Amino acid sequence: MDFDLPVVADPSVDADLALLLEHRPSNISGMFDSIADHYDRLDRLLSAGLDEHWRSHLVRDLGLTGSEAVLDLCSGTGEVALSLRRCGAAAVTAVDFAPEMLKIAESKARNAGIDGIRFICADALHIPLGSASVDVATMAFGLRNVEDPLAAIAEISRVLRPGGRLSILELSRPPSVVRRIYLGYFEHVLPWVGRLLSHHRDAYRYLPASVEAFPPPAQVAAMISAAGFEHIHVTPVSGGVAHCYSARKPKPEA
Ligand SMILES: C[S@@+](CC[C@H](N)C(=O)[O-])C[C@H]1O[C@@H](n2cnc3c(N)ncnc32)[C@H](O)[C@@H]1O
């Protein structure tokens, strides 16, 4: 199956931004490392607090029972990983390839007295976990950044046990009603405020540009299906500004 993966065709996009949009691991991890100290504060400010609502939607929807081993991929500063432990995950493995982001996650866990989270610096395309070793996998705002999203979903499938669940949260372009107001903010105000407060020239221009270049929800669902998942549900949140994708790895037929 073919997917229209991000293509940078807009000549107004300058060379540095175009390079980031190629999603080479060293460029993406370097960018997140440089903004790590500002990431949480800017996330909250620029999403008007909606980021917390989106992540809690993702975690709540899992209905954890207290026995699950969970992988949180592209864990960043650990917001989802911490919340998974608070909501009953038996153990969490938080994987991200930006060491400065992970350092913040570790210190947040330490300060909050939350144990049971293992932090691993690694690429989502080569998860250093055994096959069929986790019950649930989550990824919030990570898929859009990886070099090969389909390969990342296939790698998640490898580490999930049969019957295990996948939950992905990702930003998207909202439908027409909210679109004009939202895009005016997202493409013009956010990059300006982000640059001012993070002191990084491109990170907050990359954010709307990467959402623009990312496949629409139906295509993301098709990728999840192509990676072999079943029971795929796509739920828009906040009027389609983000989508939550849930799916299950099939059990072999008895
Ligand atoms: C937008 S942040 C999201 C962080 C976190 N999940 C959250 O909800 O705030 C994206 C994270 O994905 C990580 N990332 C992107 N591509 C990755 C890859 N190929 N392997 C591992 N981590 C990756 C980045 O380093 C960054 O920390």
Explain what you see.
The protein has 254 residues and is an alpha/beta fold. The protein has a single domain (15-248), classed as Rossmann fold. 46% of the residues lie in helices and 20% in strands. The chain has nine helices and seven strands. It has a seven-stranded mixed sheet with strand order 3-2-1-4-5-7-6, with helices on both faces. Strand 6 (230-237) and strand 7 form a beta hairpin. The longest helix has 23 residues, at 176-198. The radius of gyration is 17 Å and the shape is globular. The two termini are 28 Å apart. Bound molecules: S-adenosylmethionine. Residues 25, 28-29, 32, 55, 74-77, 79-80, 96-98, 101, 123-125, 140-142, 145-146 line the site of S-adenosylmethionine. S-adenosylmethionine binds next to helix 2 and helix 4.
The helix tally amounts to: 9
Structural class, from secondary structure content? Answer: alpha/beta
What is the average of the pLDDT values?
A: 90
User: What is the total tally of β strands?
Assistant: 7
Q: Kindly give the count of domains.
A: 1
Order of helices and strands: HHHEHEHEEHEHHHEE
Radius of gyration of CA atoms, rounded to a whole number = 17 Å
The strand order across the widest sheet is: 3-2-1-4-5-7-6
